Amino acid sequence: RGPRRGSPAAPPRVRRDAAARLAAEQEVENLSGLSPNPEKDIFVVRENRTTCLMAEFAAKFIVPYDVWASNYVDEGHNTSRGPEASWRLSRIQFTYDTSERTYFKDAVSPGKHTASSHRLSALVTPAGRSYECQAQQTISLVSSDHQKSVQLLLSEVRLQPFDIPADFVFSEEHKCPVDQREQLEETLPLILGLILGLVIVVTLGIYHIHHKLTASQVQIPRDRSQYKHMG
Ligand SMILES: *[C@@H]1O[C@H](CO)[C@@H](O)[C@H](O)[C@H]1NC(C)=O
Ligand SMILES: *[C@@H]1O[C@H](CO)[C@@H](O)[C@H](O)[C@H]1NC(C)=O
């Protein structure tokens, strides 16, 4: 869909009223300053004074765009708004402006673009649980700028909409498969180490018992033979 020019004044006003009403009911608290990691975002969304979403994540966008000149730059990074979450993350929209020269240098026809997810089904988590994933995952968005593919890199994610037991308290976590595998890889050497230690102890024990038994078995006949000789 191309940009619409000269649209009537009524639709924007309606949209603004809706936004104002939404703002009255919904409150977004930005607690990102609490994290020691400057890349991490922490947001709490409240509706009618009830916390309905808690989200922690580090987000990075990789945005391809067309440039002038020969020193080709194909990446722009930006950290921005949190995902609009239903409990399965089904939609992400990211707006960016290639005329912002801090992120985009020498852009051809600079302007605002929107990158959206297409048939997204991410962070799928059982109801009443929080989603946790330390590992990085990539979500592809399609941009209004010539259908370019924008990559969203998410890491250190902890997210929970609804069923929140208390403010700033997440329910039991549901870990993403990558984190589960990493946890196994961390505990496996420990388990193997314990088993090896146990095998060594058992081996030493058996050796010790065997040594004692053979020593006493050998000694008895020798004593007897000595008796025989004496006799
Ligand atoms: C949230 O707060 C952090 C640091 O306090 C700030 O850098 C960031 O721009 C804020 N984000 C939004 C969307 O307001
Ligand atoms: C919040 O209050 C508004 C109006 O009072 C109501 O329409 C809305 O459903 C309420 N939302 C929740 C999550 O209770």
From TrEMBL:
Record keywords: Cell membrane, Cell projection, Cytoplasmic vesicle, Endosome, Glycoprotein, Membrane, Signal, Synapse, Transmembrane, Transmembrane helix
Matching Pfam families: Lamp2-like_luminal
Single GO BP term: establishment of protein localization to organelle
Subcellular location: Cell projection, Dendrite; Cell projection, Growth cone membrane; Cytoplasmic vesicle, Secretory vesicle, Synaptic vesicle membrane; Early endosome membrane
GO CC list: dendrite; early endosome membrane; endoplasmic reticulum-Golgi intermediate compartment membrane; growth cone membrane; late endosome membrane; lysosomal membrane; recycling endosome; synaptic vesicle membrane
UniProt KW Transmembrane helix keyword: yes
Superkingdom: Eukaryota
Membrane topology summary: Single-pass type I membrane protein
Gene3D superfamilies: 2.40.160.110
Residue ranges constituting the Lysosome-associated membrane glycoprotein 2-like luminal domain according to the UniProt record: 84-164
Keyword Aminoacyl-tRNA synthetase in record: no
Known role: Plays a role in short-term synaptic plasticity in a subset of GABAergic neurons in the brain.
Family: Belongs to the LAMP family.
Protein name from the UniProt record: Lysosome-associated membrane glycoprotein 5
Recorded name of the encoding gene: LAMP5
